Amino acid sequence: MRVNVIGAGLAGCEAALYLAKRGVAVRLFEQKPLVYSPAHKSAGFAELVCSNSLKADRLDSASGLLKAEMKMLGDSLLEAAEACRVAAGGALAVDRDRFSETVTAMVRGQENIEIVNEEVTAIDESEVTIVASGPLTQGALAEEIGRLTGGQRLSFYDAAAPIVTADSLDMTKIFAASRYGRGEADYLNCPFDKAGYEAFYEALKTAERAPLHEFDDHLTVYEGCMPIEVMAQRGADTMRYGPLRPVGLKDPATGHRPWANVQLRAENVQRTMYNLVGFQTNLKFGEQKRVFSMIPGLENAEFVRYGVMHRNTFLDSPRLLGKDLALREHPNVYFAGQITGFEGYMESAASGLLAARAVYARLCGQSVPEYPAETMCGALLAYITSPVKDFQPMGANMGLLPPLETRVRDKRERYQVLAERAVKVLETQLKNGA
After folding, report:
1. Averaged pLDDT for residues 73-102
2. By C-alpha distance, which of 131, 421, 173, 149 is closest to 297?
3. pLDDT value at position 357?
4. Which CATH superfamily is domain 2-153+314-429 in?
5. Residues 225-238: pLDDT tens digits?
6. For helices 411-431 and 62-73, angle between their N-to-C axes, nearest 10 degrees
7. Sign (positive or negative) of CA dihedral 89, 94, 95, 98
8. How confident is the model at residue 223 (pLDDT cuts 50, 70, 90)?
9. What are the extents of the domains in the chain?
């Protein structure tokens, strides 16, 4: 039996590779390079748009636990990510171009995957299909999804951060370090004093935003990708407790912790480009140049990409999807990726993996795999398929997991125990054939 997969993003590639490696014929539809979404620029698969960070890979972190579970469940993309890693302290960040090239080669090299470069306008319900078209699904396919779901779709806005060249930075004002000494000074740090920060804050708060002509008039911003100018509107200290927090850092020029601090993360292996961590934005390009050049060390920065903002679409998954990620009213149509409400790169890939495992179990005449509530995969799956009044996308976080029977006060120790519990119960589940 053949399975259709629509979309060669993280979720689609993960799903296609999982099935193909197990002998299932997969037809993978990808509209690029014939048609591009507003945010995508590359013809390659698994293109990373918002950031090049796949977040922490320590087991005592939510993202690290998710990665550990994915490896246990038969993941493919983490191997590609490791091969394209760039230094980022305790985080797994990748050279996004190399990552896309590596994943594309993995998919094209799999003999059971047939790649079809065309825009899908209709879904054949007689065939098993995994829709992983992404949060920027538009046009005829969006209308087709609307037909299948009764129009029960929602939308929010996502934003990407700017990228600057390394040789345009003033390194006399910037120092290399990771918070609390984690990693090998993987981040570049731009320290603000109090006066400089307050001037920057005032400029940012009043900077002019780009119009959202093609989008809805009512702006709903996803908290996990909050535009920096929206954050500034919430108060002078909001950024200092968010992406500009100075904790865990010491400015070698003063010997003291900065008043506020902007971190730059390597965008490629050669470290010739850096992105502004946490600086997703919808400011006009000229305003980005003016305001962000007020950051110490960025006075003459060359911006090779300005921040952009785009609308993301996601399903009202609790009403529409079952635990197998198939539409309750159209059981041959599965969904995966950020369109389901799994928010984040690795979360998106994980949902592709979960959808593929559900499809494979079905093809083998087995019951749908279940994932314990104590696991991150199980918690995320439960979150997007359980009734809720105002559904919003969710990324991996320890708050999704059931509490421990015995209270552990230290947060890092508590997270480690939660993660070890998750790994143990998943191992048991898999040994029992689930």
Report:
1. 94
2. 173
3. 98
4. FAD/NAD(P)-binding domain (3.50.50.60)
5. 689 999 999 999 99
6. 10
7. positive
8. low
9. 2-153+314-429, 163-307
